[in-house]
Amino acid sequence: MATQARDGRFSNEVLPQDERPSRFGPGLIIAASFIGPGTITTSIVTGAEQGFVLAWAVVFSILATIVLQEMSGRLGLATRMSLGHALREVFSSVPARLVMAILVVAAIGIGGASYAGGDTVGTALALTSVTGLSQPVVVIGIVLTIGVLLWTGSYKLIERVLTVMVGLLGLLFIVTAVLVQPPIGDLLMGMFIPRLPPGTALLAVALIGTTVVPYNLFLHASLVQEKWGSGLDSRESLRAARTDTAVSISVGGVITLAVMATAFGGMYVKGMQAETGRDLASALEPLLGDAAGWVFAAGMFAAGFTSAVAGPLGAAYAIAGTLGQDTDLRSVPARIVWGAVLAVGAVIALTGTNPTEVIVIAQAANGLLLPIVAVFLMIVMNSRRLMGSHRNGPLANALGGLVCLVVIGLAVYQLGGLAGLWD
Q1: Are 45 and 51 in contact (CB under 8 A)?
Q2: How far apart are the C-alpha atoms of 44 and 226, rounded to whole Å?
Q3: How many of the other CB atoms lie within 10 Å of CB of 62?
Q4: Are residues 288 and 173 in contact, defined by beta-carbon separation less than 8 angstroms?
Q5: Are 24 and 247 in contact (CB under 8 A)?
Q6: What is the mean pLDDT of the chain?
Q7: How far apart are CA 299 and CA 126, in angstroms?
Q8: Mean pLDDT of the region 177-206
Q9: For 152-233, where are the alpha helices, taking DSSP H only?
Q10: In the prediction, which pLDDT does 10 show?
Q11: Which of 113-117, 128-132, 378-382 has the highest mean pLDDT?
Q12: Taking burial as the number of CB atoms within 10 A of a residue's CB, which of 60, 185, 302, 414 is the most buried?
């Protein structure tokens, strides 16, 4: 059997079984990316205020993420291109490339930097709450750690670090969910019977929006090449990538539901409200005692750190690829992008600047970018010239089309809300 080389040709080298890459990795990094402080806080607030009534939104967001990320991974393995490079191939005119560059830089660059600030602050607060260290010291330590990790340019090292963090997240919140003993029947009903009570539309949009992330589509197409770009034949690599995507992103969904279930059992059934994640830690003190603060801090640290790493990483792949630059993490263009995103996030975290206004702009840009990227991805995935036999079939197009319609609707709702149309 032959393996497909990075230039799109096939070589005859197939690694022995004991030297082949593990089955999981890129999907876990995608899960680590979308399970950040924002996802954790949104899930806590939703579980505490609404119980499981919006659990279906988590299920939908996971299914939508799997559909889009599978396409992104298939694109990377079939073409040996980043998504940015593939878009440049399909939309080759100068005006189209210019529009794409503006959208990607605005939404992913500015948005990534503002969210990096929020993720860094969330990670720092988790540590300061249990260590007593000052926030500036912790922020500098976190930023330097992330900078060193990304500077190595080692996919294997980044994968291992983020996999450990996802494992920690899963362990903490799944165990706490089991301890509070939420009613399984209510959870299943919320997962499979969609309901949208008055006043819950914004929460539903938030649950979906924090999971289906535009830069993850760029990130995944490049990560699968790092993981399975050699050593497996094309069918094996695609099968491994699909398994990794489905299982890893589903694990991310389970963690999100576990956080919601913890808030349900710890707060909703007791009539308690949540405005921040710390409210959940206080609610769990009767059950976990002094360990409640440490459990919450560890969970928020893992969530914040993984997102703070994945944000600059995704921005580097997205912006460098869209601008036609080298996406290798050790390349100068990639280092400039992730360094700039990380630096701006550090400034936001260190100066105490309220990132709300910047995040509002980033949300508007992301709300516009996600359906555009999803539609462009569908166009690329149907290109016979680029994808060959790996282009979308009827089922993939049907599922992808449904996801595109939903994210377009969510974008319209989100942008209308930012413009004050729904007040």
Answers
A1: no
A2: 35
A3: 24
A4: no
A5: yes
A6: 83
A7: 8
A8: 88
A9: 155-180, 184-192, 201-209, 214-228
A10: 33
A11: 378-382
A12: 302
